[in-house]
Design goal:
The chain is α/β, with parallel strands linked by helices. Helices cover 31% and strands 16% of the residues. The protein has a single domain, classed as Alpha/Beta hydrolase fold, catalytic domain (Rossmann fold, 3-Layer(aba) Sandwich), CATH 3.40.50. The longest helix is centred in the first third of the chain and has 12 residues, at 46-57.
Amino acid sequence: MKRAIIVHCWEGVPEYCWYPWLKSELEEDGYDVMVPAMPETEEPKQILWVPHLAEIVGEPDDELVLIGHSVGCITILRYLEGLPEGVRVGRVVLVAGFTDDLGFDELKNYFQSSIDWSAIRSHCSKFVAIHSDNDPFVPLGHADVFKEQLDAEVVVEHEKGHFSGTVDEEESCVELPSALAAVRK
């Protein structure tokens, strides 16, 4: 069965920004879609978010698509690192993902160890990284890291900010066609 799980951003909720729209579109495509509420979203912790994601996923398989937004991306990558050998997911879509703590103390807990890119690649071969050329939090250079380390297809949107909502003082991003296209490929 085709499944998709959308992992929200820091201080996000399942009903935030483009998540409901993407969930609806993917359900029309026949996906079983979940947008779980992550624990302690006001201060994300790898030690809580990764096991919560693992519980939500259950048994991963090649029909599973994982879609992350901001801290949801590093949560997915850390989840993939810990999967047993031979276990694979079908596709990973990273929206405004990053590869370091971006200078935020609250994110340092995700980077206490180096990212094991080889382990991540062993569990998925189809990555898409979607970034904006004016993201106030995530420099565009992170897209290059995903391209280099994961052979990710990179999509750069023009003036989409952090693909968030009005909480980030930007126009709310309520639809994200590039994410839908990345799943449909």
